[in-house]
Amino acid sequence: MENKDYESQRREKNILKDKKTLSLDFSAKEESEKSLEKFPVCKSCRYFYDAASSWGECHRNAPSPLLYSPEDKEILKTLVLWPSVNEDEWCGEWRAI
Description:
With about 100 residues, this protein is α+β, with helices and mostly antiparallel strands. It has one helix spanning about 1-40, and strands at about 50, 55-60, 65-70, 75-80, 85. The protein has 2 domains: about 1-40; about 40-90, no CATH class.
C-alpha cells in the first residue's frame, strides 16, 4: 500500500514539474515574440521603400546599374536596381524613421 502512495506522489510531482516547465516554455515564447516586434526590421527603417506588399526596396546605398541590350537593338540601355528586401528582414545599417 505504501508503495502505491509513493508511486502516486512521484507521478504527481512529475506532472506538476511538467506543467511548470510547459508554462515557462510558453512564457519564453511570448517574450521572444514580443522582442521580435521591437527588433529593428526593414519595415521600420528610414531606408525602406514599400512596394504595397511585404517586399520593398532598400535605399541605404546607391542603386546598382544594370546594362542590357534589347533583343532587337544593338544599343545598350541602363537600368538601376535597388536591393529588393522583405519587410521582416534586417541588417546592420538600420535607422529609425
